Amino acid sequence: MATRNLAAADFTQTVLDNDIVLVDFWAAWCGPCRQFAPVFEASSEKHPDIVFGKVDTEAEQALAGAAGITSIPTLMAFREGVLVFSQPGALPAAALEQVIDGVKGLDMAAIHAEIAAHGAGEAGDAAADGAPTEAAAER
Amino acid sequence: MARWARPPRRPDDPQLAAVRSLVRATPPEVLDRIRGRAPWRRAVRAAWPPLTLVIAALLFTPLYLAFASSAGWPEGNLWSLLLLAMAAGAALTFAGYLRVVDGRPRLGLGGSPCAAVSGFFPIVGALALATTTPPGMPASAASGWMALGLVLLGLSNRVTGAVMCPPR
């Protein structure tokens, strides 16, 4: 499967609708991004079961900002709608394969439980402080 | 004022708010499972593939001699360590300009101005060592530490800038 370009309009839906999604945040002017692009492309051909998305940070500045991108290229991996990997820096092919193997090997039931416990803990701490949660503050 | 009464926020684009909550929902411990406890190791491996390390090994001896002559051929264990560290740092910095793209070696300046000019730092370090060394005398240890600092500054710029860029 080839890579696909993602924008703010379809980013969340793509992540939620697919089991594993890798996202490369890049820009045309960035040398390491150009170095990483063929590695990412080759990996997309090798793993048709994974969605390989690319976000052009020049065209999608708001999306990059919302995703908290501070350096490019940044590779994010989502599984079952959960961010499970995020790291800036161009990866060599072997390291990208390691990341993919790591994502595929995750015990997602345990991760969902951990995230739920983490969310409950934060809510409990906030309640004890008398402060609203982040989600409540957003509202 | 109540502690929780934050200033009202500008209404956010719901699509961006969804992205924000997606990337913020994961606790750091979960991210560490794949990233590992020392993500810099991967950056180091990415910055110096095997071919780059071979070039660095070839550069090491001439750079050691260059730093030793700049320092007036000082003797002693401390100076041996300083010169080894300077030569190794400078060799890795210069070799870091060689990138392997699609299996072919290419010149890569890096992703930021700091990364592009990182090779100047070892040169400035050697020049600083030479200019602060009295004629016919070995350099002072302070000059050696200063030169090593410059070399390491260039190296750190190279290793981070070779694999990533700051966003515009």
Summarize the structure.
The complex is a heterodimer of chains A (139) and B (168). With 139 residues, chain A is α/β, with parallel strands linked by helices.
Describe this structure in words.
The complex is a heterodimer of chains A (139) and B (168). Chain A is an alpha/beta fold and 139 residues long. Chain A is 51% helix and 20% strand. Chain A has a single domain, classed as 3-Layer(aba) Sandwich (Glutaredoxin), CATH 3.40.30. In chain A, strand 2, helix 2 and strand 3 (51-56) form a beta-alpha-beta unit. Chain B has a two-stranded antiparallel sheet with strand order 1-2. Chain B starts with 13 loop residues before the first helix and ends in a 7-residue tail after the last helix. In chain B, strand 1 (98-101) and strand 2 (104-107) form a beta hairpin. Chain B has 168 residues and is mostly helical. The interface between A and B is large, with 62 and 45 residues.
Fraction of helical residues of chain A: 40-55%
Specify Rg of chain B, calculated over alpha carbons: 22 Å
Give the topology string of chain A: H per helix, E per strand. EHEHEHEEHHH
What do the pLDDT scores of chain B average to?
A: 82
Strand content of chain B: under 5%
Parts with pLDDT < 50 across at least 5 consecutive residues of chain A? 131-139
Number of helices of chain A: 6
Helix-residue proportion of chain B: 55-70%
End-to-end span of chain A in angstroms? 39 Å
**CATH fold title of chain A:** Glutaredoxin
Order of helices and strands of chain B: HHHHHEEHHH
Radius of gyration of chain A: 17 Å
The rough form of chain B would be described as elongated
Widest sheet: strand ordering of chain A: 1-3-2-4-5
Structurally, the number of domains of chain A stands at 1
CATH class of chain A: Alpha Beta
Unreliable residue runs of chain B: 1-9
Largest sheet of chain A: 5 strands, mixed
Which terms summarize this structure?
heterodimer; A: 139 residues; alpha/beta; Glutaredoxin; 5-stranded mixed β-sheet; 6 helices; 5 strands; disordered C terminus; B: 168 residues; mainly alpha; two-stranded antiparallel ribbon; 8 helices; 2 strands; 62% helix; 5% strand; disordered N terminus
